Each structure stands twice: as structure tokens, then as C-alpha cells.
Amino acid sequence: MTLLQKEYNDVAYISGPLLFVNSASDLAYNAIVNIKDGSGRVRGGQVIEVSDEHAIIQIFEDTRGLDLATASVSLVEDVARLGVSREMIGRRFDGLGRPIDGLPAVVADKRVSINGQAMNPASRAKPEEFIQTGISTIDVNTSLIRGQKLPIFSGSGLPHNELAAQIARQATVPGHEGDFAVVFAAMGLTQREVSFFTQEFERTGALARSVLFLNKADDPTVERILTPRMALTTAEYLAFELGYHVLVILTDLTNYCEALREIGGAREEIPGRRGFPGYMYTDLASLYERAGVVQGKPGSVTQIPILSMPDDDITHPIPDLTGYITEGQIVVDRGLNAKGIFPPINPLPSLSRLQGNGIGKGKTRADHKNVSDQLFAAYANGLDLRKLVAITGEDALSETDKLYLYFADDFEKYFIGQGGQNRSIDESLTVAWGILSKLPQSQLTRLSKDTIDKYYGTKMDETWRGNRI
């Protein structure tokens, strides 16, 4: 619906994806506008800054051929909005929410602002319900809790796309399978990656419970800024209006932050760390903090943002700021990937700060927390012994040390390296006990005697060994 027919014709200049309009102080921040050129072509845009002198508009398409003398700007909506509906489930959209699956546009139940509404801290409920991803290293060691925001830290060339697709098809809240949905938003994808995700979701049937937003690398930079907000707006509607438990997967946040830096450069802003805008922390928080559980609402929004760390540097501003805002991290390891282990998740630097809220008796299994602690300790010991062997040789080790060395190998082969298998939490704990049972009982210091008596000696079948996708 057009709110105002007034046109603004005093276009001053264009800088990259930004258009500067004089004498437009009555335009509102975040308003959606149309930019019409002399040939009649119309481009969409969004107001990102308003002052007494001019308004700055981000253009959603390329600016080639846009003539300043004949261009005019007209208001479309007071704020960027998305038409949402239950019928979005099973559909694919571009970064601006337009269908790209060849089907008609969604008939919207309502149109809502993509900026969302701030979640009242007093209305937030404590996240304490386990989400099963089917991936042993996450479910046992770095458990994902409903309403949590738990990022995946990866690196260039590592299989985080394959990991994201596996989580999307396998994740579920036990007992709520019927009202579980996935909202998947990908930013800055190559055409090969678009084809991979499209085929993967269709092949596995995951599309039937998913909403996909796919922004390609050759799409306008500005679209990349809007894509995660489109996804989170859809997730909030499904969760808090329709009662779904929604898992939002955002990949790759590094591409999103690079778009922020590009826009900031075009606006001639003073850069912060490594050229990124000083407000990047606030901007990322505006995305991550849209996860949560609201008291009195049946649904929930859980986030798994994925980012590829430049040069595998965890101190880079993107993972650094993300770590401050979110509740832990899952670290994809280049060394494990080089060994052909999939998914190459290293449990030692990984952490879920809310794990204790959602596991244990009545939630997963009574021995879950202690098994997780014991696996962590034994694997850390095994890796330390590997370094020692590189110096002294294996002959210098005691028999117990050799068992820890073998434990580390088995842990990587059978527990971490599950390939494309979908394991329940009970199956993951069975594999864990099968590996732990190769250590002497006296070494299982994180486990009680009753627990050891109950589970020690669990047999692990060779079929548990996963194959790389």
C-alpha cells in the first residue's frame, strides 16, 4: 500500500549501492522506497539515514544506468515488511522474500516489520529443553537447548555447509516432532552452494518442514543485510503466533559482516577493528537476541549462526563479538577434517553454556552430564599423549597411557566421525560407553560406581563407524 504519493527528485549523487537525496528530511528511517529512472525502470530501496540535509537510501539492485537528472524517489512503506503465512513452510525465497521455487507468491496472513520487536527480558523463559541434532558431538558434549543461540565457528574450505544441511534435516525436539520447523537463511552463496542446499533439502525431504531464504553472491550487497531479518521475522511468526519450535540456521555470517563493512565504506563511516563498522556488535546483537522462549507462548526460536573465521582466527572481530553475545560455540576443526572425519567438530574448544539446563534425568538421560565430562577429560589426555609420543615415541608410555592414546583414536573414528548418520541421544551415549569401556574402570573418575556398574562394558558395533559424506 502506498502511504504517500510525494516524489523526491533532487538526487545528489550515487556511491556504490547508496543513493543520496536532498530535501527529503520527512522520509522515515527504515522506510521502503521505489527509485524510478528516466526509462521507467523501478528499483527498490530502504532509507538508512535521514538528516536535515539529505536522506541516504540503500538500493536493492544494481545502480548501473541510473541517471541522477531523471531519477525520482517515492515512498512505498514506512518500514521494511514481510508478508508471513503458514504456507511459507516448504517454500524457497530469495534474500528479499520473493519466491524462487516457481510457485505463486504466498498469500500473507499479515505483514510485519522485519526488524522484529524487542523481547521483554522479564517475559523470557529459561531455556531448558533439549534439541536433538542427531550429531553425537553436539548432542552429548555441546548440547543445544531450545531457545539458545549457539554458533558454529568454521573456516574457509571446511564442510560447514554439509554440517548445516545435516542439522537442518535431522534436528528435532523430542516429543514435539509435529510442530518443529527449520528456517534456513544463506547469505553470499555461490551458484554451486545454492544448488547443493536446494537439492539436499529436496532429496532428504527436509524441505517439507523448512523455509529457505537463499541470497547469492552476485545479488546486491544490500539484500544480504536484509536476508537474516527476513528469516528471523518468519521464525518469530511461526513460533510466537503459530506455536512452532523453530530452529533458525544462518550461514554465513561472515558474508553478512562483509556486507556491513562494504555499506559502511560507501557511507564514508569511520571504520572500527579491521575496517568493520563500530556498530557491528550492536547489529549482530539485533539478530542473535531474537532467539528465545517467551512465557505464555507455546513456540520458541533457537539459533545456530554459522560463520567462517578468516584465517581460522578466533580472535577476529566477527567470532569475537559473536562469542560475547551468544551462549557458547561449536568449533569445526581443520585437523579432524584433514583426517577425513565428518563432522569434524572438536569438542575441546566447543562449549554450550546452557547445556546443564536441558540434560540429565527426565530430559535426556541421568548419566549424560557425567559421560560428557568423562569424554572431554579422556580425549584431552589422549591428545596430550599424542604430543608426547611425537617427542619420546610410544615405547616410553605406560600401558594406561597407551589406552588413552587408543581412546583418542576410537573417539575420533567412532564418536566424532559418524558421517551422515542420524543418532538419537541414547544411541550417541551407547557409542560413548562403548569407547569408554576400553579404559580401566579406575580411570573413569567422573562417573559414579552405580553408573559404571550399569553401563560399563557396553558393546559398540562396528556399524557405528560413520562414513564421510
Care to describe what's here?
This protein is an alpha/beta fold. It contains 13 helices and 21 strands. The protein has helices at 136-141, 160-170, 191-204, 221-240, 253-266, 280-288, 317-325, 334-338, 355-358, 368-392, 399-416, 425-436, 449-455, and strands spanning 7-8, 11-15, 18-22, 32-36, 42-50, 54-59, 72-77, 81-84, 91-94, 110-113, 124-125, 130-131, 144-145, 152-155, 180-189, 210-216, 245-251, 292-294, 300-309, 328-332, 345-352. Strands 9, 11, 14, 15, 16, 17, 18, 19, 20 and 21 form a ten-stranded mixed beta sheet that branches. A hairpin with a 5-residue loop joins β18 and β19 (300-309). α10 crosses α11. The chain is elongated and about 85 Å long. The mean pLDDT is 91.
Q: What is the topology?
A:
Blueprint: E1 7-8, E2 11-15, E3 18-22, E4 32-36, E5 42-50, E6 54-59, E7 72-77, E8 81-84, E9 91-94, E10 110-113, E11 124-125, E12 130-131, H1 136-141, E13 144-145, E14 152-155, H2 160-170, E15 180-189, H3 191-204, E16 210-216, H4 221-240, E17 245-251, H5 253-266, H6 280-288, E18 292-294, E19 300-309, H7 317-325, E20 328-332, H8 334-338, E21 345-352, H9 355-358, H10 368-392, H11 399-416, H12 425-436, H13 449-455
Domain ATP synthase A/B type C-terminal: 358-456
Domain ATPase F1/V1/A1 complex alpha/beta subunit N-terminal: 14-68
GO molecular function: ATP binding; proton-transporting ATP synthase activity, rotational mechanism
Short structural description:
This protein has 469 residues and is an alpha/beta fold. It is built from 13 helices and 21 strands. The strands form four sheets. Strands 9, 11, 14, 15, 16, 17, 18, 19, 20 and 21 form a ten-stranded mixed beta sheet that branches. A seven-stranded antiparallel beta sheet has the order 1-7-4-5-6-3-2, with no helix packed on it.
